[in-house]
Amino acid sequence: MVNIWDAWILEPLPVHLFLTLGGLFAGIFLSLPLAILCIYNRRLAFVIVNIANLLQAFPSFAFLALVVSLLGLGYIPAIIAIILRALLPIIKNTYLGLATIDPSLIEFAQGLGLTQVQILRNIRFPNAYPAIFAGIKFASILANGIAVLSVIIGSGGYGEIIFPALNQFNMTKLIIGVLPVIIISICLDITFTLLERRMTPTPLHKKAIKRI
């Protein structure tokens, strides 16, 4: 039993976490600047949001197929596929969260003489955290799912247990492979929920003004 535990549970974990977390955090760091640019450039916002809406409807296998056709097999194509999948909900939610702030709150901040950077840091972001974290949590689910699917392009992870178990109709092996993936998703959701609660001011507008 110890050998089964070591082989089936622990071995794929580092690779799976590398794929999921690496792709997710790379997606976050790429998405936030793009979303910020969209606030100040309506044409760019129109293009990016519509592309995000279009690509959001693509099945995960389509991303893998596209990346494989361009970059081949292995870890790097898998990471890129995860990044592309994670970018879309984060960009869209971050932009909507930052752009839909009460205009009177922005006008009030401008009347106090705040710069755009100060407004972004002290007004827009604190009020947009719920939308931003909703996008990140959804992206974490997508990243975790792509990490499983990416085994078909040679990346490893828990897909190495799940897909053979499906082919063999081995329910015990399938459950052993699926449980860690579920646990990872739950842990990510809880982590980002706690971080959101810690960072989001309550009430939003009072705390945002108080921080100025």
Structure overview:
- This protein is an all-alpha fold.
- It has a single domain, classed as MetI-like fold (Orthogonal Bundle).
- The chain is built from 10 helices and no strands.
- It is elongated, with a radius of gyration of 20 Å.
What is the top-level CATH class? Mainly Alpha
Total of DSSP H or I helical runs spanning 4+ residues: 10
Tell me the helix content.
over 70%
CATH homology superfamily name = MetI-like
Largest sheet: none
Round the mean pLDDT to the nearest integer and report it: 80
For the record, the CATH architecture stands as Orthogonal Bundle
* Overall number of structural domains: 1
Q: Beta fraction of the residues? A: under 5%
Instruction: Enumerate the spans where pLDDT stays under 50 for 5 or more consecutive residues.
Output: 204-209
- Run of helices and strands: HHHHHHHHHH
Distance between the termini: 58 Å
Cα-based radius of gyration, to the nearest Å:
20 Å
- Gross morphology: elongated
Specify the structural class: mainly alpha
- Named CATH topology: MetI-like fold
Number of strands: 0
